[in-house]
Design the sequence.
């Protein structure tokens, strides 16, 4: 029996993805904006004014209960990259919550603990790099999932821990993008069971309705006793598509197989699959699998 299983499911809801742009293409009407404490509104000619432009607003201390707006961007546009760093304390890494809202909605499309969103569970920081997330030296967080929006993008982070901490960040976006009518919206759902129930499938993502794409998941697993770990690798991923009810359409062959390995699992971090945390070294498991080259589409629910 696993003691705790923590997945963050990533999905795109609506249908198509952001059109790729050539390195040599400069699309007309599209502008670049960087949001940070140096230019929190992302306005033209308004950055770096604090302390006469000498790194006067590089960071801010966020008090318990305080919400910081990372970016509030009028659309249309695309969030291209998010970078941030905070002190590597457990209270901060698990106690701060990232939320993202698209086009003026009241509920967040993304809501997850800080470090879990960026690909690592259980407040462990290690270097890794994937196609969507990275932590170059084990002390910062990067996300390069393109996130389109039509009217407005609001990205926030809230300190829900009992301690204040310092935040450095920047959010890089383009505005004025010509988005297809059926461009997707990015969603991420965090869920945890502690403990899990033996012989009962863990629900990574509840049934969703609409047209979209399951992008993948960041998964954390902690066993009952790390000194005598129980092998969890024979649990296979099951994906119920559209009208599936009793039996799924897509079925894997095991957890280590899902992340591209076999016959057990060691540490590795590749573009679309990896295990940057292992029980032998870190006391917990941290895995990811992103269905970028092998898309998982759904059309109804």
Sequence:
């Amino acid at each position: 029996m696993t003691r705790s299983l923590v997945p963050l499911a990533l999905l795109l809801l609506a249908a198509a993805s952001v059109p790729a742009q050539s390195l040599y293409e400069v699309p007309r009407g599209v502008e670049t904006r960087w949001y940070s404490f140096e230019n929190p509104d992302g306005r033209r000619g308004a950055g770096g004014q604090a302390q006469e432009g000498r790194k006067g607003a590089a960071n801010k201390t966020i008090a318990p209960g305080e919400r910081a707006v990372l970016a509030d961007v009028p659309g249309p546009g695309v969030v291209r990259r998010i970078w941030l760093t905070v002190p590597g304390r457990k209270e901060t890494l698990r106690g701060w919550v990232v939320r993202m809202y698209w086009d003026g909605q009241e509920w967040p499309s993304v809501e997850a603990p800080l470090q879990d969103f960026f690909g690592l569970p259980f407040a462990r920081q290690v270097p890794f790099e994937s196609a969507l997330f990275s932590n170059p030296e084990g002390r910062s967080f990067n996300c390069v999932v393109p996130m389109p929006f039509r009217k407005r993008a609001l990205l926030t982070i809230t300190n829900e821990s009992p301690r204040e901490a310092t935040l450095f960040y920047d959010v890089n976006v383009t505005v004025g993008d010509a988005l297809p009518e059926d461009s997707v919206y990015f969603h991420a759902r965090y869920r945890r069971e502690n403990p899990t129930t033996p012989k009962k499938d863990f629900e990574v993502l509840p049934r969703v309705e609409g047209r979209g794409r399951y992008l993948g998941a960041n998964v954390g697993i902690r066993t009952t006793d790390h000194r005598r770990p129980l092998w969890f690798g024979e649990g296979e991923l099951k994906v119920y598509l559209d009208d599936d009810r009793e039996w799924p359409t897509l079925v894997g062959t095991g957890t280590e197989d899902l992340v591209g390995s076999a016959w057990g699992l060691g540490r590795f971090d590749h573009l679309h699959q990896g295990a940057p945390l292992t029980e032998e070294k870190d006391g917990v498991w941290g895995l990811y699998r992103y269905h970028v080259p092998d898309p998982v589409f759904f059309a109804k629910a």
Q: What stands out?
A: The chain has a mean pLDDT of 90. Residues 90-95 form the longest helix (6 residues). The helical segments are 90-95, 114-117, 255-258, 279-282. The CA atoms of residues 100 and 155 lie 5 Å apart.
